[in-house]
Amino acid sequence: MSETEVPVPSGGQSKTLHHGLQVLELLVDHPRGLTLTEIAEGIGVHRTVAHRLVRTLEVHHLCRRDRFKRISLGTGLVRLAEPVEQDLRTLARPVLEELSDAGGASAHLVVRENAEQVRMLMIVEPRQARMHVSFRSGQLDPIGRGSAGLAMLAAEPPSAGEREEVTRARGRGYAVSSGEIAPGITGISAVVPAGREAPATSIGLSLFEATDAAGLGALVVAAAQRLGTLLR
User: What PROSITE patterns does the record tag this protein with (predicted)?
Assistant: First the structure.
């Protein structure tokens, strides 16, 4: 299964489409491919059902089989993904590159996927650092865990029972988390100021050790402000 549990479809939703999307999400987590049996077991369906799902995805070039009959993602996904958040990524790249170089750490752009999750839209790795943090673009994480989601929650009005770090982030303008997305990794994020219609977006740094969290926080806030200006 993918990193985040996908809810079973309720009334008004297509169960077949749900399973097809589960196949794609499963293959994202297994870039070297899976057998048909492994796919069937991974999404909890009979092998015959998995065969029909995979065959349909193959017709649309969304998955493919190699000579060993292992199934992996297909090139058709590239064409589908290209327009997604393209303007945001295009504008964000130079800001992320500058932030990454200034902070000597990996810079990330995260968007709010839904009420409970955030998605890593882009990550830029530093060009000079000997070691750096690496994440997979597209991964989903709970909004209440990790600096990116905490920064988004801090941009909302205070709520009863919110985490102390959310309250602190609201006061200083950026959120800090340690070991919440990956062991030993510190995240520092700030929300990108945008219009009400735009999805919540944060920009930040991920690093092994933050000896000057306040200084890095200032860099992150400045980068978020620059991107917000570009998006207006």
Answer: HTH_ICLR (PS51077), ICLR_ED (PS51078)
